[in-house]
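Annex B. Sample input.
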Amino acid sequence: MPLAFPLYYFPTTPWLAAALQQTTLHYDLGIIYRKQRFFSRTPILTAQGVLALTVSIGRRHTYAPMQEKEVVFYENWVRQHLRSIEMAYRKAPFFEHYFPECESLLQSPPTSLWQLNLATTQWLLQSFGWKGEMKPAGHLESASVVNLHHQFDPTLQVLPAWFTPKEYRQLYGNFQPGLSGLDLLMNEGPVGRLVLLDSWKEAGAFQL
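Annex B, continued. Sample output.
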């Protein structure tokens, strides 16, 4: 049965661990955008603790589908995000390799939220060695699709049952699971793929 993934901004490690299991990744553009979710935010680890980087979204049509949400730039969130990422990870082993790519990605971001999320997602997946194909889920019959958006709801404050986080090096304090893939990439580089694969709990996969 095909799976429909929500498109997130620099998705978290549980999302990436599930995505790496797919040869074709179907993403859902019809899902209704909601605040306080990963549609427009991603958690990174700083010296002061976990920080949510939040994209500024236009307020028109608050409950519109993802494909209708637009990014706004008057709050200069791009500069804030890049500065926060640099301050958080400049001492990380792979910062010098990946930060220029991240910077280039964000310096000319799309104005559509789904296109921004698609770009950040593809970059992370490719950085972790994924060679699959991403397609919108709209062409699939809805009755045959399992939508995974509730599996990654941060308001539930629990990790998916099929995700058992494998610890990796982090720069600050005790290990924090379920962060943005940026944290794993900056600290472990391409080897982060093995961390994600080892975090996949196949026996409990997608207990819906």
